[in-house]
Design goal:
762 residues, Dna Ligase, domain 1, D-amino Acid Aminotransferase, Chain A, domain 1, 4 domains, eight-stranded mixed sheet, six-stranded antiparallel sheet, 14% strand
Length: 762
Amino acid sequence: MSSSEELVVSLKDKEKCLTENVGGKGENLSRLLAEGFRVPDGFCLTVRAYKLFIESNQIDREIRVELGRKALSKMRWEEIWDSALRIRSMFLRFEMPEIIVAAVKKIYDELKSAQSFVVRSSSPSEDSSGMSFAGLHESIVDVRSFDELIKAIKIVWSSLWSDAALLYRKEMGLDPGKSAMAVVVQEYLQGGPSGVAFTRDPRNMQLEQSVIEAVPGSNNELVDGLVEPDRWVILRSSHEVAEWNPGKRPDQKYDRQLLTDSELRHLYDNTLSVESKFGWAADVEWTGKLENLHILQSRPITSGTKKIQDDQRQWYLSLRPKMQKLKKLAKRVDEELLPQLKRETDQLSQQTLTDLNDRELAKVIKERLNKVRKWRKIYYDEFIPLAHGVRQLGIYYNNEVKPDNPYEFMVLLKGQDLLASRRNSLIDRLAQLIIQDNQLAETIGRFLENSDSEDPPIWDEIRPPLKDCQNGNTFVEMFEKLINDFTHVSFKGENLSARPDIYLHTIMEITVAKSSEKHKSPESSEVSEEPEELMQKLFDAVGEERHSEAKDMVQLGRLSWKLRDDDNILVGQLESFLLEALNLAGQRLKQRGLLDKYEKLNDTAALILSDALLYPPDESIELPQEKNKGFSILGKQIGKPRQLVGQPASPGIASGSARIVHDSNDLKEFKFGEILICDAIQPTMTHIVPLASAIVERRGGMLIHGAIIARELGIPCVNGVADAAELIEAGEFVTVDGYLGIVTVGEAEFDLERSTGREGPE
């Protein structure tokens, strides 16, 4: 690097503020200044500064490792978020090269009149006429010290690799490896009003009209969707206001416009001037009015241009709501939605279906199907975004503490009162009763040997012999509580409340685990501190004046994690009641010779069965069955690989016999010490996880249920392994390396050598 001038340039230096150096945002701001518009004073860190930082700390190499485990197109959102968090952690932990610090300090000192700054991304691929990265990269506002400025710059750089930015690049077909980031630093203007102006209506660019929005305070409140704006539609031909819609804001009158006619006219003239100077329909962020009007940034409007099919940017943004939105969402889910869902499942549990005639049963099926569909949509729209509370906690904790382990914050989530935890605790106590009563163990053992998965046993048949045992009455009472409170859930199209044998098997296996010397968890490199210790570490990092903020963030993260676990089980309960009605319909139709079999029922089956009850067909009906796609490339079956690569989700190494869990019968067969291999671990099946010596999942992510439980139990977990349940066969010997994220199929090489007599020298 020949000169620090190549690292930092003033916005006033138009000749150096080119897109390839300072990104689209930086160049546009510099051009606005040169054209005479009022723009907050500031400077840019160039793309060269970014490249120097990542190369000097070898972050570029680590990024290649993170994104090289698996093609971006094959990674789920959770896996991308994990990689993004690890990359972000590197940016925060590593030091800024002194040459960059000195260059920033020099120009920072020249802006001493500024009380605070805003730090924004300016990637060369941003703010073009073909695509918009708006909202996908970080902006840090109200930065009040030099140290905070350096930290903010690193956070903005790291946002080039955020989950949302990576997902959007995947959608747009961009190569993340060629990405770079400049940064704009400007004086932060507070007050208001503020807003955005579109010289063409972004909803329909063909209309000869413009749109202006304004909020009373900072523009961040509008961009983050926290405050509803006033909105004007202005005719381009006459500059007359065609429509005004006041924003509904607390404690404000709706009959007064935020901008007077003269203020609105002055703002509109400026935005049209931007369009004229730049030659494209402009999206302009602004603050202030009349002589204090400042343009904060301007970019081409991308709405109305050729769109990439299935552009999911708004969905990605919805998955990471801001703090205030997250709080509102958590309050709504906690106080409204989950209680409502619980009431509906309780009401369904009180319904008796056997006395209903066919028409009544068909009506119940459609009602339950509609409930399931309604709650699935709520789950998608509100429960899934709520999961960001945990992720937000992780980002907040890592920003302040800068731990070596980017998942250290997970310890703060330990000990939450989850429905799954209550269920597992009850199962554990039932196992303890069996350990104390040999007669009880023998009775359950005989029953399980004689039980038939094709014709599952009825609890009423099991209860009498159990009650004759020493601890029988207590066991029966507790087991019935388990059935009534926790087993009304859907798993792979089956209602588990009708399978007491599955839970009895799990309980018996836990008794084996408790009496085994191997029950101790393998040594783990996970964080050893307790939640209280990490909370103090966070307090020390943020300072006493921000303790309340830190408490709120941790509380929100904990609530988010608890609700996101509980909602899975409650929605599963709702689905189980639909299956209950479908099974009864299937029984009736089978008895009449109209149906051969009714397994793995789904939404389509619900409509077919309800119609068959209302309008009995003349001939037998057939329900659609899910096809087993298998694993192939270009239609050709491939050979079994020796090693499968995934994400290292929980540290440790363990070997054992593979147990593939496809359906409920596999739950029943699961034995202590086996390797659990499945598509995805759901809260409805986590009761078997304590039996596993390791976990392998197709679904990836450090914050999914399997990964978190594995870390709590201290067992290895590798997830994000494509087609794991198809490539590995039941009973195969596998080794799970949770440090490297590798699953080895077959015996280790030295074992193979010993078995063939080819031992090396001692």
